[in-house]
Amino acid sequence: MGTIKQVALVGGTHGNELTGIALLRHWREHPDEIARSSFAVETHLANPKANQANRRYLDQDLNRQFHIDDLGDFTLTGYEHNRAKALNSLLGPKEDPRVDFVIDMHTTTANMGMSLIFNTDDPLVVGMAFYVQQQMPHATLFFDNMPSRLEDNFLTSLGRYNGFLIEVGPVPQGLLRADIYLETQQAAKHCLDYLELYNKGEVPELPKVRQGYQFVEKVKLPKNEAGDLTAMVHPNLQDKDYEPISKGDPFFLTTSGETIAYDRDETLYGAFINEAAYYDVSVGLSLMRKIDIELKSEPAAG
Amino acid sequence: MGTIKQVALVGGTHGNELTGIALLRHWREHPDEIARSSFAVETHLANPKANQANRRYLDQDLNRQFHIDDLGDFTLTGYEHNRAKALNSLLGPKEDPRVDFVIDMHTTTANMGMSLIFNTDDPLVVGMAFYVQQQMPHATLFFDNMPSRLEDNFLTSLGRYNGFLIEVGPVPQGLLRADIYLETQQAAKHCLDYLELYNKGEVPELPKVRQGYQFVEKVKLPKNEAGDLTAMVHPNLQDKDYEPISKGDPFFLTTSGETIAYDRDETLYGAFINEAAYYDVSVGLSLMRKIDIELKSEPAAG
């Protein structure tokens, strides 16, 4: 697919995740920090109106609106439906995008540390994850299953390559933590460095395989008929992202104090444990499977 | 002032602080847990509309609307202005309240642990703080300065006694943490137990004096002309609520990475450090002074 010419650094896809938004502001005043010699970098605040309102979104989650069918569906008329189409014009069009690569900066209330989320096994993208992890060994690789770039509904799928989410936590919505800000800044810098090395054919030797976590499914918190939550993430599970959950382990705690145990036979791993953003759909956590992620070939353009 | 006959347990004064709201629901199904023999307990969701919207407030912070002048000012017509007047009818009127004591359950994104906030040196109220701390020794006493109950703008000032805030953190807005839920439940139970002991003349021996923190002032984060924050709470200060801050200590970190030092001569202590709710007024933290809080006489009715 050739070299990378145009990279979009995006923040504020969720309007109350302030870290990426503050970094975009910082970089507009310090463009040298994100300038690289072999490609152009543009910065975009994805959902300014949700940011003004200090909300994740106004009408619907922007980061689920980029499926090719939805981008072409003009009966979808919510604010984020329209915003997605506008971003498709700006960065895409999805079928033949102007932008080569989108890096989207997110935060989570879950204790996920530095998580690198990607949806494709393309060597360029997997190579970016491995490279960033080489620089930041505490980073976790989070592989989400998406059928194809065109059917992917994330903003990062607008680029010619299916791009990359930097997801850092824990941090509450609507505030800046300096540690999370600095981590995100570092990770974004490494992503850009990697693309520069790629263009120059100078990507250092990367591991052939690394351990990561593959998304399996989301688990809902129990509710009563009135729609109110009747249980919470169990204290033993809270903050234990990427740790194993085995049959019989405490999973939820009802508001009356009874423990509900995890009842699957397969040991899985939690992620997005008690993410505030998922309360609108009563999701308590994601279950993940530990996997080996393969780098299928050398990501060497140049 | 005689015995306590009517107690209001309040949650959701800030609509995105879900802990108190979940406890109110739990207690409506388990009324025995908050029933006491010598007084009646009523439960109130203070700002249901903000809770539905998962916001702190719709128009203005409800917990600043209870100054006697504002309650009588009918030119104040925002949602929370009106809600305050409605609560004044329900619990007050402030000048001669129906309810004896209001206990209001709050959470904070700051690392304040179990904080007991009260605005008066009345022995009944100070006795409650000392009693709860006897049961929960990790609790911190937070004394806020208010001129008088009538001029106090907190919801808790609607009671005949100027009541009591249970403030627990850290927890992000818009989610439930089981540990914070259980802590809040315990503290509320101890408050009710104390009032029961008070009515029966059986309050155990309490310390004459305890160390606490007195509110001094709020400190704003720096902004640029566009109104955007240009600095964050310094990583060395983040999560260090109730720890000393002395001249020269790192205080803020600019988004460009420069440290701004604390420049006052007096060593003070932080609280509400990086509280998300205060970003609307760019407040980074509260400064507190360490003080001795005195129990001026035995809180013995009976």
Provide a descriptive summary of the structure in words.
Chains A, B: Belongs to the AspA/AstE family. Aspartoacylase subfamily. Chains A, B: One of its GO terms (cellular component) is cytosol. Chains A, B: Zn(2+) binds at residues 14, 17, 106. Chains A, B: Residues 212-290 form the AstE/AspA barrel-sandwich hybrid domain. Chains A, B: This is Aspartoacylase. 2 copies of one chain form a homodimer. Chain A contains 6 helices and 13 strands. Chain A has 2 domains: 6-210, Zn peptidases (Aminopeptidase, 3-Layer(aba) Sandwich), CATH 3.40.630; 216-288, N-terminal domain of TfIIb. By secondary structure, the first copy, chain A, is α/β, with parallel strands linked by helices. Chain A has helices at 18-29, 48-52, 68-71, 79-91, 123-135, 178-199, and strands spanning 6-11, 40-45, 101-107, 113-118, 140-143, 164-169, 209-220, 231-233, 244-245, 250-254, 259-261, 268-271, 283-294. The termini of chain A are close together. In chain A, 23% of the residues lie in helices and 25% in strands. In chain A, helix 1 (18-29) crosses helix 6. Chain A has a 10-stranded mixed beta sheet, with helices on one face. Chain A binds chain B through residues 22-23, 25-26, 29-30, 54, 109, 170, 172-179, 181-182, 228-229, 232-235, 238, 253, 255-257, 274-276, 279-280, and chain B through 22-23, 25-26, 29-30, 54, 109, 170, 172-179, 181-182, 228-229, 232-235, 238, 253, 255-257, 274-276, 279-280.
